[in-house]
Amino acid sequence: MQDLEEFIDEASQGRLLRIEDDLGGGFVRLRISEAQRRQARQDIRCVEDAVIELLRNARDAHARSIFLATSKSGDMRSVVVLDDGDGVPEDMVERIFEPRVTSKLDTLCEDDWGVHGRGMALYSIRENAVDAHVAASIAGQGSSFRVMFQIGDIAERKDQSTLPALEGCARDGWKLGPGPRNIARAAAEFALSVRERCRVYFGSPVEIAATLFAYGRRYAQSPLSSVERRCRIAPAKRLSFCTDASDFAACAYELGLDVSQRSAYRIMQGEVAPLEPLLGVLLRRTEHGRAAKAASDVARDFRGLKIAPEDLDDFSRVMKKAWTVIAESYYLDPDIDPIVKVSHDAVQVTFPASKQL
User: Fold this and answer.
1) Which of 150, 169, 207, 342 sits in a 20 to 30 Å window from 124, CA-based?
2) What digits encode the pLDDT tens for the residues 252-293?
3) Helix (H, G, I), strand (E, B) or coil at 137
4) Cβ-count burial of 55 within 10 angstroms (0-12 exposed, 13-18 middle, 19+ buried)?
5) How many whole angstroms separate alpha carbon 341 and alpha carbon 351?
6) What are phi and psi of 170, to 5 degrees?
7) Which of 48, 54, 76, 77 is nearest to 67 (CA)?
8) Which residues are registered as beta bridge partners of 167?
């Protein structure tokens, strides 16, 4: 029996003994033993883990642009990852969330977050989410995934408003400075790792919608009022084909983005600026911080503080007289000479206090 398995494994280059079911279109369901072999170093234990897995999937789908939108309402966290990659075939939009289903049978890889291609990331995400589904997809043109988490059922960092800071320089390489390991940091770590391959945009649903509107404008020749016609356009380009604010809000909803009609109107009027890629945002913040520090250093007086000895003697006598008043009230020795020190930018006065017997 073992000889037969070895023969089959060699003849099929190991494919048959790894596959339980060939689902077509490059998708397969792995055998349990193969799925276990592909276990990543971490499971989905928090929202940030799920974000990384969704971003990795977009990268592996050959996306050149990835748009990450996140928002929170009460205890519900919404995460939308939209890309211009390979997309998901129509007959696989549900099956990709089933256990051990993957399109990466022969492209198993390891990156900064462990082994990828295990085929269980989307299944694990849905198991931890209130809802997880493909909001929109066209094979060969990209997709949009929307996931809803209930905070409490799954953890997330309390501080989700702080953006990480970049440290270093282009010559020596950039890295992230200290800060909360929130969704923004997870996105920034990922953006750094794929900076040679694709761009990552990160923001609120309204900001991402404005970015997609600008992104697709170069392709939009004329508005498309027909939803059926618009749904044949790549998800990342659809918003630019909308005819009015109502149409825009409805299209955004179809992509998984919660955008009010008022916000849609503001976007279409150019009142909401599109986002820069996340690394560009962080780089600009870093350069602004360095410029502010440089300006502060220029304005600072480096001459130091100097006081003439005779003026120090007069000042010391005044301080001693003031000390006498306090000393009498608190039974302290009034006959104390103050110690006066002049530093670069301060005058320090010290009274060695001692109680009277």
Assistant:
1) 207
2) 999 999 999 999 999 999 999 999 999 999 999 888 877 766
3) strand
4) buried
5) 12
6) -65, -35
7) 54
8) 175
Q: Are 125 and 53 in contact (CB under 8 A)?
A: yes
Query: Could you tell me the pTM of the whole model?
Result: 0.72
Cα separations in angstroms, 27 against 19, 59, 60, 91: 10, 17, 14, 11
Q: How far is CA 182 from the centre of its chain?
A: 7
pLDDT in tens, 56-89: 999 989 999 999 999 999 999 999 999 999 999 8
Sign of the four-CA dihedral 62, 67, 72, 73:
negative
* CA–CA gap between residue 349 and residue 327 (Å, rounded): 16
pLDDT tens sequence across 211-247: 999 998 877 666 665 566 667 889 999 999 898 999 9
Q: What is the pLDDT of residue 298?
A: 56
Q: Which of 35-44, 74-83, 154-163 is predicted least confidently?
A: 35-44
Cβ atoms of 188 and 54 closer than 8 Å: no
> Three-state DSSP class for 133?
strand
Q: What long-range pairs does 326-330 form, CB within 8 A, spacing at least 24? A: none
Distance CA 233, CA 241 (A): 9
Q: What are the tokens at 68?
A: 């990450």
Q: Which two tokens stand for residue 101?
A: 């289903």
For residues 121 and 61, give the distance between their C-alpha atoms in angstroms, rounded to a whole number.
14
- Retrieve residue 268's tokens: 């279409």
**Geometric angle at alpha carbon 110, from 106 and 113, rounded to 5°:** 135
Count of CB atoms within 10 A of residue 10's CB?
9
Element holding 146 (H helix, E strand):
strand 142-150
Pairing of strands 199-203, 65-73: parallel
Partnered with residue 175 across adjacent β-strands are 167
**Cα–Cα nearest to 180, from 158, 202, 154:** 158
Q: Give residue for tokens 């120090």.
A: 312
Q: Do you know the residue count of the chain?
A: 357
